[in-house]
Amino acid sequence: MRIIRKAAEFECNNGKVRGLVATMGALHEGHLTLIREAKMLCDEVVVSIFVNPLQFGPGEDFARYPRRESEDVALVESAGASVVFAPSVEDFVGLPVTFIQARGVSEHYEGAHRPGHFEGVATIVAKLFNAVRPQHAFFGLKDRQQCAVIGAMVRDLNFPVGLHFVSTVRDADGLAMSSRNAYLSPAERALAPLLFKTLKQAAASISESQSSSTAVTEILSGAAISLAKAGFEVDYLDLVDPLRFEPVINAMSDTVIVVAAKLGRTRLIDNVDIPKQ
């Protein structure tokens, strides 16, 4: 397995099918699942390890975000990837003057609570596509709005990359795997699975409500209140169109419940599809 530090070191894939798994390191089973999915489709799998400063806002956790490259490289190799791309911020970002903005899809929810976040994500993902030149790229559906933003960027800018969005990997108690889960205290970690449990209950209730907009509003409001009473600070909890990432008032078409909530100092996000009747 190779470790590449500079984008210029990437060679033509010489007819091989190349896949990309973009990460910020601190790898867990969710990332390894993406690598294994990529291995099934691609001859060569590149895993990027890059804590992207452009997607962190003032006061966020860029400085304390976990960095453990040697452990991550070992995990990447064990999962069967071919290359780790781990550039420095100075080499890969520099002082950028060009940013990519996916209008509409990036404006609500995470985009509203973290201004500039998705511009930073889209810009670095575009740079990764240009550096690595993959035919396929793999992302986890836990970051559902990020997937929608990247999908819009690829369609609108005609990137020749096939996108693969892989189901959220969860711990046995239902908590979505995330590098930030390490921030949770033991008491917070014990409470955290309630987020997914509440979403599942709300999704089942909405599915059974025959798409009544009044019922949907009451179910979502009740779920948010329940989480707040349990100790979560809810940023948003809403029913959305998964492609446009705009709020919807019924579940007649494909819809997803999305949530972001703080538990102590840790901000958790998750989402659940509404079951089809």
What does this 3D model show about the protein?
By secondary structure, the chain is of the alpha/beta class. It folds into two domains: 2-166, Rossmann fold (3-Layer(aba) Sandwich); 179-271, Pantoate--beta-alanine Ligase, Chain: A,domain 2 (2-Layer Sandwich), CATH 3.30.1300.10. The protein has nine helices and nine strands. The protein has helices spanning 29-41, 69-79, 89-92, 110-113, 117-132, 144-157, 186-191, 194-208, 213-230, and strands spanning 2-4, 18-23, 44-49, 83-85, 136-140, 162-166, 233-240, 256-263, 266-273. The longest helix has 18 residues, at 213-230.
Which secondary structure elements does this structure contain, and how are they paired or packed?
Layout (H helix, E strand, L loop, with lengths): L1 E3 L13 E6 L5 H13 L2 E6 L19 H11 L3 E3 L3 H4 L17 H4 L3 H16 L3 E5 L3 H14 L4 E5 L19 H6 L2 H15 L4 H18 L2 E8 L15 E8 L2 E8 L4
Parallel strand pairs: 1-4, 2-3, 2-5, 3-4, 5-6
Antiparallel strand pairs: 7-8, 8-9
Helix pairs in contact: 5-6, 8-9
